[in-house]
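Re: the request from the purification team.
They wanted to know what the chain is likely to look like in 3D before they choose a buffer screen. I agreed to run a prediction and write the result into the notebook, where they can find it.
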Amino acid sequence: MIEILISGGQAGADRAALDVAIRHGFPHWGWCPAGRKAEDGPIGGQYHLTETPSAKYFQRTEWNVRDADGTVVFTFGDRATGGSLRTIAFARKHGKPCLHISREHCYQPALDLQQFVELHNIKRLNVAGSRESKNPGIHLWVMGVIEDAFFWSENHPYTLGGPGEG
């Protein structure tokens, strides 16, 4: 299972991973642009992120892919675009496993994520994807997927099983 969640801190899918980690007292870290730049203003100090030398997003994106064992990219649509597409390209460049989870075409996202992590023996998972401004609601959806995948028993202490069970 994973030992740390990595993310760049952008509003949306990235920040969802960090918020899940904080909620569950789980280790998190990642590279963020110089100045802790994000679309909604500076990234808060509660997130354990290290600034890259550049304020450009592409550097933090590549460094997070490079320093992780694998990356998951979350989008609402079935095609990755913009920074999500660039993240996938960096995973290919660095020979890292990458999973694209689309809300539109993925019926068991938490189970798919668990299987990806297990198949590739991922300890350091980079979480990336759409910004909240481009896909309103993605933050909450990604939080739910990550929590169901890795924190099921904490969120559902009186139920047996987990995603894919039953």
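For the purification team: Residues 4-46+55-153 form a domain with the Rossmann fold fold (CATH 3.40.50.450).
Please add any questions underneath this entry.
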